[in-house]
Amino acid sequence: MFALVASGFTNIYLTQPVLPVLQQEFGVSVAEAAWSISAVILGITLANIPFGLLADALPVRPIILLGGLMIAAAGLFTSTADALSWHVAGRFTQGLFIPALTTCLAAYLARVLPPDRLNVIMGSYVAATVLGGLGGRLLGGWIHPPLHWRYALVSAAALTIVSTVIAWWLLPREGKRVRPDHASRVGFLDLIRQWRVLRLVFSGMGSFFVFSSLFNYLPFRLAQPPFALSTNAITAVYLVYIMGIFIGPMAGKIANRWGSGSTLLAGAAVTFASVLLSALPWLSGVVAALLLLCAGFFTVHAASVGALNRALAHGHGRANALYVLFYYLGGWLGVSASGLAFQTWGWAGVMGVCVGMLAFPALAGWQLQREQESGN
């Protein structure tokens, strides 16, 4: 499971460190080159709920096998694309099938594991997403020379095929399904009508908007004066991402002790500080900003998911699918909107839109804190 999730997430951010290389090779603008990432996120956003419904209706292991093979095939196709339009089409197809290795796998684990084991395995699941995200960035801009980014796509495809086949072969078959009772059939519209659900969904969306924006346009900022870093040096900066492996469990403990509201407010404040620090003209300041960004983002993400699941008596599966939908929608909007802001106003434009989106986790935290203090 760990290898499967990590290899799946490797494909998402594979081209992020080499976006300036893609811009030059395809002869496109910054915003157009960023579609290499936003197309994947858009595909995940559109396919997440359909795959969640498939996971409830069909055995998951064949879905995992199909999804993994399609991601690999689309990656191999993308590695041969000689135009940005075909490149984006291949990346979009990869995004469409990523939920087979994320949403469907999470549903599978919830069905086949007892509760005490599920908590442990889901901790590994989160760590695998972080490792995969970091691994993709390192594979795309460090392990393979930047100008040979096409080989990184081939390597990621090979890893995905191997991990998918092994997972399909070794993961236990599902037992007999338990038919859900009437009370548990909470629809998506029912969830959207609940503000206590919607504010936490928007909290995750806003935080991932900021995270995706800063990390996606960091290569362009660091490639320009006063930094003028090489692609290898820019890729090394992404090592700060590994902090997410440790922050997630810590955020859960903080939320248990101080409450989800206070944790969300603290995470939003730390993220806000990271946005401000990113404007510093020193590399040490930018690295500090990214460390704070990881700390703040994963704190908000973990606290939002935890508060969402505690707020509901039924419909947890659909609520989590809804959260993931808006989560990746926030990432896609962040990459798209910040690209236009960067072209128009430079890094100050990226900072401006990010600060605005932090209102969502801050509002959710403030309201949760007030409810906690009033005993509601």
UniProtKB/TrEMBL annotation:
Cellular-component GO terms for this entry: plasma membrane
Localization (cell): Cell membrane
SUPFAM superfamilies (UniProt xref): MFS general substrate transporter
PROSITE patterns referenced in this protein's UniProt entry, alphabetically: MFS
InterPro entries the record matches: MFS (IPR011701), MFS_dom (IPR020846), MFS_trans_sf (IPR036259)
GO molecular function, one term: transmembrane transporter activity
UniProt record similarity statement: Belongs to the major facilitator superfamily.
Protein name: Putative major facilitator superfamily transporter
Natural source organism: Magnetofaba australis IT-1
